[in-house]
């Protein structure tokens, strides 16, 4: 697990795919527990899905955690993800604006619900296209405006283009195109909790 940045107040890592952000009820291994085992008294600020890789920030003191929590609550940070999706896109960019809610009978899955769902918006942009096993694949940039659980995965499914390797939302054929979920938290920009200066972190693309 690579540490991208560390000072007295924060530590930023490149979270591996397939590792929990925080310990679960049964599975205790997580990036949080690994950092704690390495001697860092980390405090959780935000989470990434277990299957998602990329930039994740932790606080190292209570004041920094409070500041960063407020930033995420007020949507101060800018988050950029990259993903791979299959199929011909009808446009080169767009906005998905679909309310989401937990699909309780099938949790942890989420679903679109116009009646009870929470507002959820994702900006997307096609970066490139290529062929994989005779399938047209698009690399896309995703900028979530809101931060709902599984938001990017459900929004891409709703767009008609689930993310490659998505065990929850992809069709069997799209799921089979990758052994991992092709969703990566590529860049994170926010204010340092002490100096209030803008800082930006980037995790190398794994796919």
Automatic annotation (TrEMBL):
Keywords, in A-Z order: Isomerase, rRNA processing, tRNA processing
Record-annotated Pseudouridine synthase RsuA/RluA-like domain positions: 9-157
Molecular function terms from GO: 23S rRNA pseudouridine(746) synthase activity; RNA binding; tRNA pseudouridine(32) synthase activity
Protein's name according to its UniProt entry: Dual-specificity RNA pseudouridine synthase RluA
Entry annotated with the keyword Repeat: no
Catalysed reactions listed for this entry: uridine(746) in 23S rRNA = pseudouridine(746) in 23S rRNA; uridine(32) in tRNA = pseudouridine(32) in tRNA
Family: Belongs to the pseudouridine synthase RluA family.
One GO BP: tRNA processing
Enzyme class: isomerase
Biological source species: Pelagibaculum spongiae
Described function: Dual specificity enzyme that catalyzes the synthesis of pseudouridine from uracil-746 in 23S ribosomal RNA and from uracil-32 in the anticodon stem and loop of transfer RNAs.
Enzyme Commission number(s) of this protein: 5.4.99.28, 5.4.99.29
Pfam family, one: PseudoU_synth_2
PANTHER family: DUAL-SPECIFICITY RNA PSEUDOURIDINE SYNTHASE RLUA (PTHR21600:SF91), MITOCHONDRIAL RNA PSEUDOURIDINE SYNTHASE (PTHR21600)
Native organism taxonomy: Bacteria, Pseudomonadati, Pseudomonadota, Gammaproteobacteria, Oceanospirillales
Stored InterPro entries: PsdUridine_synth_cat_dom_sf, PsdUridine_synth_RluA-like_CS, PsdUridine_synth_RsuA/RluA, RluA_PseudoU_synthase
């Amino acid at each position: 697990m690579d540490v991208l940045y560390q000072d007295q107040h924060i530590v930023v890592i490149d979270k591996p795919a397939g590792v929990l952000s925080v310990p679960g009820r049964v599975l205790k291994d997580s990036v949080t527990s690994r950092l704690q085992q390495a001697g860092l008294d980390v405090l959780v600020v935000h989470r990434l899905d277990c299957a998602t890789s990329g930039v994740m920030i932790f606080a190292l003191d209570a004041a920094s955690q409070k500041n960063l929590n407020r930033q995420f609550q007020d949507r101060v940070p800018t988050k950029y993800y990259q993903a791979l999706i299959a199929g011909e896109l009808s446009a080169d960019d767009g906005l998905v604006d679909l309310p989401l809610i937990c699909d309780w009978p099938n949790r942890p899955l989420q679903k679109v619900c116009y009646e009870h769902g929470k507002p959820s918006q994702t900006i997307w942009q096609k970066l490139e296209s290529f062929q994989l096993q005779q399938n047209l694949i698009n690399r896309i940039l995703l900028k979530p405006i809101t931060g709902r659980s599984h938001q990017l995965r459900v929004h891409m499914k709703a767009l008609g283009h689930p993310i490659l390797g998505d065990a929850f939302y992809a069709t069997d054929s799209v799921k089979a195109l990758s052994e991992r979920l092709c969703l990566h938290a590529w860049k994170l920009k926010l204010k340092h909790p002490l100096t209030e200066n803008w800082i930006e972190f980037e995790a190398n693309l794994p796919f």
